[in-house]
Amino acid sequence: MRWPEVEQLDDQSINVASSRRALLGTAGALGALATIPLIGRLLQLGDALASPSKAQDAKILQLVLQLEYTQVAFYEQALRQARLTGDLRDFAQTAVEHERQHLAAIRKALGPKAGPKPRFDFGQKTKSAQAFTQAAIDLEDIAVAGYNGQATNLTKGTLAAAAEIVSVEARHAAWARAIAGEVAAPDPVDKPITAQQAARGLREFGLRT
Amino acid sequence: MNGFEHFDDLLTAVDHDGALAETRSKAEATLSRRHLFGLTLTAAGAVAIGRTRDAGAAAGLSASDVDILNYALVLEYLQASFYTEAERSGALTGKTAQAARIVGATERAHVKAFLELLGSQAVKRPTFDFQGTTEQQRPFLKTAVAFEDLAVAAYKGQAPKLQSNPVLAAAVGIHSVEARHAAWMRELFGITPAVDAFDRPASRTSINRIVASTHFIVSRPKLTGRKRPTFTG
């Protein structure tokens, strides 16, 4: 595990108020970048906080912790309740093992400040194979977009560690789509979401804290 | 720590004629700049970019970011050319043909985005010889898996080095798409789409060595901009 140590801070919600200004300030200096559709879109959607710092890493990791708790709980419950078979069962078993390792890594990075496992209500998402597949795609996409959205907010060391996780989440999403017979990589570039959007996405998915 | 395991996986996956494993140790022993020409600029070329007055000036990019973007551009050229050639060969069928069409279009979009971003600083498209891997479905899939896993590892290795936040935001958005591609191609090939809980990065040296060992690149990219500094401050 190569997660850098992060400062131990009280859990607090991530302030994204200054988000656009910070990133667009950079963009202003870069001007021409915004004329490229793919990148222009990212400039508008990017979620920049203050400059990266160990303290900020810790705040972001609290959100990531919630994400990984949600993924572990979701796959565990689905493996118990959704009567998964064949490829879907292989996928869920592999994914839950990966998510457990991600969770352990984030908990270790946060140390004593890592919060306890939240409560969840996944509704029908873990009750059938069909519902599970779509929900898994949704949750993995939230994970990818959530991690990507924090890339510019993390210190370089923590970014490098997070990058080892985000591509695995992307693989999970593509895997689930392929099993469902869908186009496994629908977009040329993955859109990031802000910390607030990620938190809202997790609540809507079933995170109850 | 299984970085070497991944390196071996990559090498095995691109070792379509069974000869690469043998040449690997030789390649490592005799590794020289000449072997790296396929994928990257020479040190002199990179320095020239850094010194060139209009280096990335339109976009305000640092010389280091321009260098990384050109490296990414060559990887995207490699992938785009590979999928385009496979599509044109008519050898692909079913889900594989559909995936190749979609992934190919995406890689071409990545090339276009980097070309626009780099402007006159972009390296030219190298000439490729995919050694027959685009003409049969199984060798195509095996090579596609290798390219996509390679791209994921390469972007991951470079992302923390990018200085421009907008470029970083774009790079991570492409990085995760390459991971989706890797999983898709792996699924089509019939191997597990996500091997480990953590995807490890690869250095430019490792990536260059692997690509060089395939002999897929038959001409090195050249700078389109001026190679000599015209502004020395």
Care to describe what's here?
The complex is a heterodimer of chains A (209) and B (233). By secondary structure, chain A is mainly α. Chain A has seven helices and no strands. In chain A, helix 5 (129-149) packs antiparallel against helix 6. The longest helix of chain A has 28 residues, at 54-81. The radius of gyration of chain B is 17 Å and the shape is globular. The model of chain B is unreliable at 1-58 and 223-233 (pLDDT under 50). At the A-B interface, helix 1, helix 2, helix 4, helix 5 and helix 6 of A face helix 6 and helix 8 of B.
Key phrases:
heterodimer, A: 209 residues, 62% helix, globular, B: 233 residues, mainly alpha, 2% strand
* Strand arrangement across the biggest beta sheet of chain B: 1-2
The largest contact between protein chains, plus residue counts on each side, is: A-B, 60 and 51 residues
The pLDDT mean of chain B sits at: 77
Residue share in helices of chain A?
Answer: 55-70%
Sequence of secondary-structure elements of chain A? HHHHHHH
The percentage helix of chain B is 55-70%
Q: What class would the helix/strand composition of chain B place it in?
A: mainly alpha
Strand fraction of chain A: under 5%
- Strand share of the residues of chain B? under 5%
Question: Which runs of chain A of at least 5 residues are low in confidence (pLDDT < 50)?
Answer: 7-36, 39-47
Major sheet description of chain B? 2 strands, antiparallel
What distance separates the N and C termini of chain A?
27 Å
User: From the helix content, strand content and strand pairing of chain A, which structural class follows?
Assistant: mainly alpha
Query: What is the 3D form of chain B?
Result: globular
Oligomer: heterodimer
Radius of gyration of chain A: 17 Å
Biggest sheet overview of chain A: none
Number of helices of chain B: 9
CA radius of gyration of chain B? 17 Å
Broad shape of chain A:
globular
- Got a strand count of chain B? 2
